TrEMBL record:
Catalyzed reaction equations: N-(5-phospho-beta-D-ribosyl)anthranilate = 1-(2-carboxyphenylamino)-1-deoxy-D-ribulose 5-phosphate
Protein name as annotated: N-(5'-phosphoribosyl)anthranilate isomerase
InterPro entries, sorted: Aldolase_TIM, PRAI_dom, RibuloseP-bd_barrel, TrpF_fam
Record bears the keyword NADP: no
MF-aspect GO terms: phosphoribosylanthranilate isomerase activity
Residue ranges of domain N-(5'phosphoribosyl) anthranilate isomerase (PRAI) in the record: 5-199
Entry keywords, A to Z: Amino-acid biosynthesis, Aromatic amino acid biosynthesis, Isomerase, Tryptophan biosynthesis
Gene field: trpF
A single BP term in Gene Ontology: L-tryptophan biosynthetic process
Length: 206
């Protein structure tokens, strides 16, 4: 089955619409101020309102004050929450919304144990561990560290680009792939040609 595609870190209406038209299944909106991809609630609103139907919107948070998450949820009809920090399971489920848990993979991390802890998550987003930032670093991790019996959908992330995502899909067989830096011309600026090439490479890998 062809993996679903999430493009993360859209910050303007035109790029978000174009990304959807190019075939992205989901758009990530970053509500984490230190990120170069941070989006205000107002702009997020405009993006969500402009998207065509059947494109999912994912709100991304990193160890956020629950009041921020609740504030966003009060005004934005997001489809999914993505928790990208060290949020415990009780925090993730407290909002009563479907969520995915991001984990930053490095040797020694027990992904099966994490899948058990976050059993009510809709999926585990496996990103690269980096000391530089919690995510969006463009760094890859060793895909051999992924178990082949993860009991929930695997969203593969971390350093994916048009040039390596086909190999990633064929090797890992993830439920979905997620990308940010690999489809940017500079930090936080999406390049639609790269988005198109990324999506085509995923579809080609089947
Ligand atoms: O994108 C960010 O700036 C970001 C910052 C802090 C936490 C998470 C962040 N992004 C989360 C994503 O879903 C990215 O797509 C994922 O980390 C992969 O990023 P990249 O390796 O740059 O493709």
């Amino acid at each position: 089955m062809t993996p679903r595609i999430k493009i993360c870190g859209l910050r303007d209406v035109a790029s978000a619409k174009a990304t959807a038209v190019l075939g992205a299944d989901a758009i990530g909106l970053v509500f984490y101020e230190p990120s170069p991809r941070h989006v205000s609630i107002n702009v997020a609103h405009e993006i969500v309102a402009a998207l065509p139907p059947l494109v999912s919107t994912v709100g991304l948070f990193v160890d956020a004050d629950p009041a921020l998450v609740e504030g966003v949820l009060r005004t934005l009809p997001l489809d999914l929450l993505q928790f990208h920090g060290d949020e415990p399971p009780e925090y993730c489920r407290a909002f009563g919304r479907p969520y995915i848990k991001a984990v930053r993979v490095k040797p020694g991390l027990d992904l099966l144990e994490l899948a058990d802890r976050y059993a009510d998550a809709r999926g585990l987003l496996c990103d690269a561990y980096s000391s530089a930032a919690p995510g969006g670093t463009g760094e890859r991790f060793d895909w051999q560290l992924l178990p082949d019996n993860l009991p929930m959908p695997l969203i593969l992330s971390g350093g994916l680009r048009p040039e390596n995502v086909g190999e990633a899909c064929r090797t890992v067989r993830p439920w979905a792939v997620d990308v940010s830096s690999g489809v940017e011309s500079s930090r936080g600026v999406k390049d639609l040609a790269l988005v198109g090439r990324f999506i085509a490479a995923v579809r080609q890998a089947g």
